[in-house]
Amino acid sequence: MLTPVELIRSLLDGAKGERVAMLCVSSILAVLPTPRRAIYGRLKGLLEQSLFLLESQRANLDLRVLRVSKVVDRERDNGDWKRIAGAARMALDGRKRIVSYGKSGQILEALYNIQPLAFRGVMSLRRLIQRSTT
After folding, report:
1. pLDDT by residue (tens digit) across 15-73?
2. Is 64 helix (H, G, I), strand (E, B) or coil?
3. What is the pLDDT of residue 47?
4. CA distances for 63 relative to 60, 68, 78, 95, angstroms
5. Kind plus residue range of the DSSP H or E element containing 66
6. The pLDDT of residue 100
7. Tally of domains within the chain
8. Which residues form the domain of 77?
9. H or E element in which residue 117 lies
10. In terms of Cα–Cα distance, which of 41, 49, 56 is closest to 98?
11. pLDDT tens across 99-127, in order?
């Protein structure tokens, strides 16, 4: 786990202050825990966190993360690899730190992030109703 971070740290040292653009190809599982892929997801999340920490310590690192959220069939060429390469290019060229590839994963991530807000809204509404009936 530490080897990639140490390698990047060495590359940054060798760059002597020049900006270094880096793309971390990650997975939606880094932020959406699933029981079947728990270890894989946790390792991806740990790598992302380590790289973001490194970026905060090194002014010359320009980090982008591409979270792939689609199962890619390695046996068939259905154009996924070309689309992922396009998403990687967009991630490097764009301003967003984190870019997601795959509609279903983007929807799941949005639902996962909205869930606490929805719960808070329901609880606030419940309290308001309780107050108005007493």
Report:
1. 988 999 999 999 999 988 788 889 999 999 999 999 999 999 999 999 999 999 888 88
2. strand
3. 94
4. 10, 16, 29, 10
5. strand 61-68
6. 87
7. 1
8. 2-102
9. helix 103-133
10. 49
11. 888 887 778 777 777 887 877 888 888 88
Whether 85 maps to a domain, the answer reads yes
Let me know the angle formed at the C-alpha of 31 by 26 and 33, rounded to the nearest 5 degrees. Answer: 115
Burial classification of residue 1, based on how many CB atoms lie within 10 Å of its CB (0-12 exposed, 13-18 middle, 19 or more buried): exposed
Q: What is the CA radius of gyration of the chain?
A: 19
Asked, for residue 64, whether it belongs to a domain, the answer is yes
Q: What is the pLDDT of residue 53?
A: 95
Residue with tokens 């786990």: 1
pTM of the model: 0.76
Q: In this structure, is residue 123 part of a structural domain?
A: no
Tokens representing 120 are 């808070």
If phi over 0 gives left and psi between -120 and 50 gives alpha, with beta otherwise, what is residue 92? alpha
pLDDT of residue 2: 67
Q: Is residue 59 part of a domain?
A: yes
Residue pair 41/27 in contact (Cβ under 8 Å)? The answer is yes
Rounding to the nearest 10 degrees, give the CA dihedral for residues 34, 44, 62, 97. 0
Residues in CB range of 98: below 8 A, 6 or more apart: 64, 65, 67
